[in-house]
Amino acid sequence: MKIKDIVFLTVFLIVAGAGLYIVTTVDVVKKIERTESIFKSILFGIKEGPHEYFPTHAEISEEELKEVNVTKIAEEIGKGITVKKKEKLFEIRKKTQEALEITKQKLEEEIKLKHTKTNARVAKLMKLEDLPQKFKPLKKVLHPPFKMGACELCHVSAGAKPGKLITKNIEELCYKCHKVRYSKKYNHKPVKQGRCLDCHDPHQSNAKNLLKAESVNNLCLKCHEPGNKRKIKVTVNMNGAFKHKPAEKSCVECHEPHSASFKKLLKDDGKMNLCLDCHSKLEKHVDMQKWIKEVKYKHGAITDSKNKCLECHDPHSTNHKGILRKQQVKMCLTCHNKEVKSDEDGYLLMNMAEHLKQNPNWHKPIKDVRKEGGCAACHNPHGSNHFSILRRSYTTDFYTDLKKKGKDFICFKCHKPEKFSTKLTENDKITKFRDGDVNLHYLHVASKKGRACRVCHDEHASKYPHLIRRYTEFGGIKFPMRYVGTKSGGSCQPACHKKYEYDRVEQKNKLSEEVFKK
Fold it and tell me: 165: which of 42, 108, 442, 517 lies 20 to 30 Å off by Cα?
């Protein structure tokens, strides 16, 4: 018979006997308490077994065995019991006592076995003031066994080598109490190799979790800082001018220190999901998760690239605003150094790196990135509801009415609308594109068939000043602009038109009457 069967039989017989005993006894309360005491004692021994470090309390005394006495129960029942029932009760008594005796022996054997296996014992406690001098002064955080003075929970107290661990290695010892093992797909190497003491002090520390450094970051960077003697492949530079706030706070904001389901011990998919855990909740910014998924025009660097957010951003620190991996324009040119297929309409976008190389006059945001914002001054790198992921509306048409575009027009983000709406101007404060005091910008755009900005200007760079185009497109055909600049003005001769001249000092054309008619 297996011990499991014996246990169940024992419990059944105890309950049956106790029931009869209680029913036929006057002092019911007292008997219930006594029966409960016996029952609890047996269950404690069966279920709990011996304590890891202290003697077990699971034992059955002779007096308690006598309490479960079927003969006594039978006598108390009285004369009304039949001979057959008496014989049955004697049989039950015999089996009960035999079962209890077997259970007691089994428990004693189990206790003895467990004590042998774990070397369980009552640990001698040492007062903190009696600890060796090397542990003084005590630090802020104490390992609980150390704080209790229970050195013998981990160390041998006697023999040839007092102080030696009670287990073969530190890993086995630590896991006696700390049950979290390296059970996930990716494991921190020191954890996997059982080198708990690489990061933790077994006795005391001034940092939480008994770390061997003042902070989590200081501990991690002992190995993961560039130039480390251990030659670890994954290194992190936290000395950049711009730091990722979670990384600056603590490495464990994003990484698991022991074991994880994702590469680099990240708490979630590091390409985007982990980033969006925070960047969907920040009050100062839009819900980035919703924005990226729902905007009309998406940036391929986010939606189609292998590394998602990490294509452009360093998750730790850099010397570039927005913790970009490179200066903003250079970052964009990492991909736009060749023709790139547009996600919007399938057309090829120009090789912007080559375009900037061939045209030395750059748009101011590109020229002065730090002050003017670089490519992101006009484009939203995370996606937009406007064509070419622009931050505001724009037009690719030849003719447009800028009056209807209003402040939402992208060019008005930096350029004042007065530059296009003022008819006459006597100085250069509003615009230098004038013939005498006639504002030529106004003449070009202030009508239903006004020319869009991009008809004359390149949005990125040009060989000519003021971003004047070399060619303009009309009806699918490129026509030369033939722009020529002078000290106080210039001229152009687009397509098959005659040459138009203008001069800020000496007016070339009688345009005042034409202006005032509009």
Answer: 108
